[in-house]
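Hey team,

Filing this mostly as a record. A colleague (T.K.) asked me to run one chain through the structure pipeline before their review meeting, and I want the input and output archived in the tracker in case anyone asks later how it was produced. No errors, nothing strange. Just documentation.

Input sequence:
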Amino acid sequence: MAERNPFFVDRTNAAPRPMNFWAPLVVSGATLEAEAARLAGLNLPHGSRRRSLIVHPSATEPGLGFAPGIEVSINLLMPGESTIRCRQNSSQVAMCVSGTGAALVGRQTLPFEQFDVWNVPSMDLYRYEGRGREPAVFLSYSNAPLLEKLGCITLRKIPQSRPTLPRPNRRASARKISPTISRSAATARACSATSI
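Output structure:
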C-alpha cells in the first residue's frame, strides 16, 4: 500500500467562498396531499417506512434538505401498519397533519393525532404505528443533512426479534417470588436491554 502523507494548501489572504443563499419556497397543501396519496398507494413489505424527503432545489448531496442543514420529510402510516425499529444520531421533531398513530420512542408510547407535535431524541430507539381508521400523515424535521455533510450520520434498523411483553411490576414481583427468581428476572431484563 502506498504511503499517504498530509499536505499543505496555501490559503494566505484567501477570500472566503461566497454564500449560497437559498430562495424562500412554499410547498402547497395540495402538493403534500398528492405525495401522501402516492405513498399510500405503494405496495411495501411489513416494517417499511412510507417516507419522502421535501428537498429544496438548491440542496446538494450529501445532505439533501429543505433548508441548509434541515431535513423535512412527509411520512405516512396505513391503518394497522407499523415501521421497523430504528436508531439514528440525528434529532427529530414531528407534527401530525392528519389521522392518528403512535410514536414508540425509547420506553414511551406517544399517541398522536392531528396537530400534535413530538420529538425523537438522538440515539433513542423508535418506531411508528398507524392506529386509526384513516392513514396517519406527519411531517418530520431533523438535523440529518448537517450530519451527512460532516460525514457522521448513522441510521440503524433493528428488527423486532421477540414479542413485546408488558413490563412486570417490580414491587409486586419482589414480594411474590423467591430472591433467586428475582435475580434471574433482573439478569434477563439487563441482558435484553443491552441487546437492542
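Quick notes for T.K.: Confidence is low (pLDDT under 50) at residues 162-196. The two ends are 38 Å apart (CA to CA).
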